[in-house]
Amino acid sequence: MISIQSIIIGLIFIVAQSILSRFHKYPYLGFILPLVYLFFILYKYFVVNMIPHLWQAALVLIVGEALLLEIQYTDSKESKNKRKRELDKIKAHDSKE
Fold first, then answer.
1. Residue 17 vs residues 29, 69, 80, 86: alpha-carbon distances, Å
2. pLDDT, tens only, 1-21
3. How far apart, in whole angstroms, are the C-alpha atoms of residue 6 and residue 2?
4. Are 33 and 17 in contact (CB under 8 A)?
5. Which ranges of the chain does DSSP label H, i.e. alpha helix?
6. Would you state the pLDDT for residue 22?
């Protein structure tokens, strides 16, 4: 059974991933949480044995990593597009003068 604490931690990870992925100056910040998640799931499987079967650990790992990396990809693309639109506005404004 999923606890409220697990849901809150998952939501915090998603929000933090979204925030870290938007920094265009440091594009690799978006890869920090997927690595933390990878080590966390491996720790829970190998050390603590909270995940009883390998296939469950693999499923949780693949789904979580896919979600975090998708957030990183879409937010970084969105940030790049937003920056490009702002630069285009500045160029258009400068060409009018």
1. 9, 9, 16, 24
2. 567 887 788 889 889 988 888
3. 7
4. yes
5. 4-21, 32-46, 54-96
6. 83
Q: Report mean pLDDT in 10-residue bins for the chain, 97 residues.
A: 76 89 82 90 86 87 92 89 91 79
CA distances from 96 to 8, 71, 87, 89, 93 (A): 50, 38, 14, 11, 5
From the CB of residue 47, how many other CB atoms can be counted at a distance below 10 Å?
8
pTM of the model: 0.79
Residue 68, helix vs strand vs coil: helix
CA dist., res. 32 & res. 60, Å (int): 18
For the beta carbon of residue 13, count every other beta carbon within 10 angstroms: 19
The pLDDT value recorded for residue 2 is 62
Backbone angles phi, psi at 59, to 5 degrees: -65, -45
The domain segmentation of the chain, as residue ranges, is 4-96
